[in-house]
Write a structure and sequence with these properties.
The chain is α+β, with helices and mostly antiparallel strands. The chain has one domain. It contains 2 helices and 3 strands. The chain has a 3-stranded antiparallel β-sheet with strand order 1-2-3, with no helix packed on it. The longest helix is centred in the middle third of the chain and has 30 residues.
């Protein structure tokens, strides 16, 4: 654990921000000032809204159905520009 007597550098702040945003939060670096605590709370709220939104979007991209639907070996349907082609 990093105590208050150690001078933090940019990478320590980046480490705190990354692990706060990913909601892992090991607790090695702790925000002691009121401004740091407010920033941590805001960043945590943004992360809790950000992760499900983009997780759902990526799941949609992987699960969406293809534009071509094969009915038989010789006939298939294509959906393009709000029209269905045979």
């Amino acid at each position: 654990m990093i105590g208050p007597e150690k001078e933090l550098n940019f990478f320590d702040y980046l480490y705190l921000s990354l692990f706060t945003f990913s909601t892992i939060r090991y607790g090695e670096i702790i925000a002691t000032g009121i401004a740091g605590k407010v920033i941590i709370v805001i960043e945590s709220c943004i992360a809790l809204a950000y992760a499900p939104f983009f997780g759902g979007y990526f799941a949609y991209l992987f699960i969406q159905r293809p534009k071509d639907f094969f009915l038989t070996d010789n006939i298939f349907l294509r959906y393009n520009n709000n029209k269905i082609y045979v």
